[in-house]
Fold this sequence. Notes:
The protein is an alpha+beta fold.
Amino acid sequence: MRYIKAIVVSILTVLLIWGLNRPWGSIPAFGPLLSPFVGFWQNAESANVSDEELAIQGTQAPVTVLIDDKGVPHVFAQNDHDLFFAQGYLTARDRLWQMEFQTHAAAGRVSELVGDRALELDRYNRHMGMGYGAEQTLKGMQADPASKVALEAYTAGVNAWIDQLSPAKYPIEYKLLGYAPESWTPLKCALLLKQMTSTLASGADDLLMTNILRKYGSIVTADLFPDYPTLEDPIIPPVLPGILNQYLPGHPLRMIPPSTT
C-alpha cells in the first residue's frame, strides 16, 4: 500500500511541476513566478538604503546621483552624454516594464505579450500609423547632432541597466507575463514619445466640458476644473551636490567608468 501511495504522490508531484511550468492559453506559467530562486520573492525591496558606487561601462566621467528621501534621483554629470546616459539607466531602473509595454503598444505588438486579447488594440495603433510616425520622428532626431547624442546616450543607459539584470531581478510584471526584456533602441525612444503623445493629445473632452458647463454653470465648473498657469517658476536646486544634500535628505549613487576604479 505504501508503494502505491508513493507512486501516486510522485505522479501528482510531476503533474504539478509540469502544470506550473507551462502556459495555459493566455495564462502564463506560474512555476517561474513562484520559484524561490527567480520568482516574485526576489523583488522585495531592501529596507536598508545606503550609499552606492557603481562601475558602469558607458560613462565618460564620474556621475553623481543624489536619490532623495522620496526616491527621486537628482543627476550631476560633467557632460551631456553622461547626463542622458544616467537618465536612461535610472529611468529603466524604476520604470523598465512600463517603458517597454508602452513601446509595444505604440508599435502594435502587445498581442506578443498577452495574446489574442490585444489584437484589436494592435490593429488600431498600426492603422493609426504609430510605428511609421515614430520612424519619421527618429529620422528628425538623428539629423540634429545634439538630439542624436541625447538619444544614443539615453539608449545606452537603458541597455546598461537591462544588461546587468538576471532573471531573478526582472521586474515583477515580466515574471507575471513570462517574458524577458528586449534591448532598448533609439526607435523605442520615438515609439515612447508617440505613445505619450497619443495619451495626452489623442482625445477631446469638449463635449463633456460643454455639458458640465451647461448643467452646473461657470462658477462651479471653474472650481472643479481650474485653469492652471501655463508658466510656472521651475524648481532649480543648487548646482553642487554637497549643497543640495544639506536640505534634501537622501543617499548618493555614483556612476564611475570602469577605467577609473
